[in-house]
Design a protein that fits this description.
Strand content: 25-35%
Shape: globular
Largest sheet: 6 strands, mixed
Radius of gyration: 18 Å
Strand order of the largest sheet: 6-7-8-3-9-10
Structural class: alpha/beta
Distance between the termini: 32 Å
CATH class of one domain: Alpha Beta
Number of strands: 10
CATH topology of one domain: Rossmann fold
Length: 250
């Protein structure tokens, strides 16, 4: 089957004062439907820039991004906005929840923005399903200030997947969380992939987070330096990944 998401020889350059910074230097990759892929690298490696290009949040300097057979790097601003709203989901470090809305209302927000009632029919059922998926049953009526940080990020995950996007893009979703709470978020992401066949691209600098993925692309200096296949497994120990990284000197 063709890949659901592809990057072809991507470069991205930024002007920094009188100089030009090359954030990506000829990156190519493929993501299969239902795959959990991690983009791993240190700060400044280009991994977040790559995620923004894959999600249509920015355009490459050269190269192309093909999503579901369509070159999204050539879309108009309106077309790119529609694509992000209808076909992709995003999770970031910041939870970006609406303080005055409860858990159910925050999760249903994409439906509300599209002019649909999240309390009716199929939309209500979808909200109920993702609340169970991220294990927030009993918290439906809580506002964000009545939740822990981990619970707030699980609401953000549920909101990102409630529309059943083709691809979920997560940029350091555990970056602001402690070790235990971060594990809860990674477990929630993995369940969406395992139980709902959700395609996920995760950006992280943390081997523990990357170890949840089926496959890890190691990025340094704007290039993919290594591809490490871990496979789908219930044991998310980072030891095999860390050992492989040590073997290749990363």
């Amino acid at each position: 089957m063709p890949a659901i998401l592809e990057a072809h020889d991507l470069t991205k350059r930024f002007a920094l004062g009188s100089t030009e910074v090359e954030a990506l230097r000829g990156v190519s990759l493929e993501v299969q439907a239902g795959e959990f892929l991690a983009l791993m690298g240190p700060s400044g490696s280009g991994k977040s820039t790559l995620l923004q290009l894959l999600g249509g949040l920015d355009r490459p300097t050269t190269g192309s991004v093909v999503f579901e057979g369509r070159d999204i790097s050539r879309l108009s601003d309106d077309e790119a906005t529609r694509l992000r709203r209808e076909r992709t989901g995003f999770v970031f470090q910041a939870f970006n929840l609406i303080p005055l809305l409860n858990v159910r209302e925050n999760i249903a927000l994409p439906f509300t923005i599209a002019g649909n009632d999240g309390n009716r029919g199929e939309y209500r059922d979808r909200v109920r399903e993702v609340i169970a998926l991220v294990e927030l049953n009993g918290k439906e009526n809580n506002r964000p200030d009545q939740l822990s940080q981990g619970e707030q990020q699980r609401v953000a995950v549920a909101r990102a997947v409630v529309t059943r996007p083709s691809v979920l893009l997560a940029d350091e979703p555990t970056g602001n969380l402690d070790y235990t709470t971060g594990g809860e978020i990674l477990d929630a992401l993995w369940r969406t992939c395992e139980q709902s066949a959700q395609t996920i691209v995760l950006v992280t600098h943390d081997a523990r987070a990357a170890a949840y993925a089926d496959r890890v692309l190691v990025i340094r200096d704007g290039r993919i330096r290594e591809e490490i296949t871990l496979g789908r497994r219930a044991d998310h120990s980072a030891a095999p990944l860390i050992a492989r990284l040590a073997q290749i000197g990363l």
